[in-house]
Specification:
The protein contains 13 helices and seven strands. The protein is globular, with a radius of gyration of 18 Å. The strands form two sheets. A five-stranded parallel β-sheet has the order 2-3-1-4-5, with helices on both faces. It has a two-stranded antiparallel ribbon with strand order 6-7. The chain has a single domain, classed as P-loop containing nucleotide triphosphate hydrolases (Rossmann fold, 3-Layer(aba) Sandwich), CATH 3.40.50.300. It holds the Pfam family Sulfotransfer_3. InterPro entries: Gal/GlcNAc/GalNAc_ST, P-loop_NTPase.
């Protein structure tokens, strides 16, 4: 399986949907929200990427039946909050590296995760599942489940660009302040770095800017790292065609099908107010240089 981590609005939905076009690959979106959105209907959106309600989608009905999802949804949400928030990343890493035993609640999560990914693979006929939930502690936990053969793709984007994306509501996702966005950006990316330090051979970092500038080349590099044979889904010129997917939650763009052109989005450089640039830069400053982002936004 391929788990994408990092902060939101970094291109993970598009990347996942492109990989979804490859034989034997299934992008399932932000799978962590299956319990709240697909069972309890308490989340921000309950629509599957195929356009149906998650409860009416044949794929997710089959998966939830296999894992007894309706009976365990509340428990799984509680366990996520208790074990898989970003603040627990170091603890889950210690367990994944065999330096500490898994607590009982974490063992319960492990058992359900195994059943869930197996059921998804069978329902979608997939050999590789792409999960873009982006919770570093969840990624760290999965690294301790070798039977799932997890790999972690760490996606990053200039924090000022993500702040601009969060600056306005998008579909069913509300807006977020630049300071809050960049604070999360720093926390999620720092925790993702801990995973890469612990498992360097199973982690890959990808900058959104590189992906947008050279989509065919970049996704080819991701495919090679993940053991996926060519050809890739992106043609020369950065064009691709997206089919139907079965994603949970995620960016509203996941519902888009048909032709798509991948190109750089630099609107933030002129559209983001100077005060917002300053706030988002301040909160992200500890990691910006590491990823090649400069203080001069021009």
């Amino acid at each position: 399986m391929l788990y994408v981590t990092g902060w939101c609005r970094s291109g993970s939905t598009l990347l996942g949907n492109l990989l979804n076009e490859l034989p034997g690959v299934a992008h399932v979106g932000e799978l962590n929200y299956l319990w709240s959105n697909g069972v309890l209907c308490t989340g921000t959106n309950s629509t599957c990427g195929c356009g149906k309600d998650l409860r009416d989608c044949d794929v997710w009905r089959q998966v939830l039946l296999e894992v007894d999802g309706h009976a365990i949804a509340t428990e799984m949400i509680q366990l996520h909050n208790a074990c898989l928030r970003t603040r627990f990343t170091r603890e889950r890493l210690r367990e994944a590296r065999g330096l500490a035993p898994q607590p009982r609640d974490v063992r319960r999560v492990s058992a359900v995760k195994r059943r869930l990914y197996t059921a998804i693979g069978e329902a979608l006929g997939a050999e590789l599942i792409v999960d873009t939930s982006k919770f570093p502690a969840e990624a760290a936990h999965l690294m301790g489940l070798p039977d799932l053969r997890p790999q972690v793709l760490h996606m990053v984007r200039d924090p000022r660009a993500t702040a601009y994306s969060w600056h306005r509501a998008k579909g069913y996702i509300p807006a977020m302040s630049p300071l809050r966005s960049s604070t999360y950006w720093t926390g999620f990316n720092a925790a993702s770095e801990w995973i890469a330090s612990a498992f360097p051979e199973r982690c890959l970092r990808l900058r959104y800017e590189d992906f947008a500038a050279r989509p065919a080349e970049t996704i080819g590099r991701v495919m090679a790292w993940a053991g996926l044979p060519p050809p890739g889904p992106v043609l020369d010129g950065g064009t691709a065609r997206l089919g139907v997917n079965h994603t949970v939650t995620g960016n509203p763009d996941r519902l888009r099908t048909g032709p798509v052109t991948i190109r750089p989005d630099e609107a933030w450089r002129t559209a983001l107010p100077a005060s917002s640039v300053a706030l988002s830069t301040l909160a992200a400053l500890p990691l910006m240089g590491r990823y090649g982002y400069h203080l001069n936004n021009r």
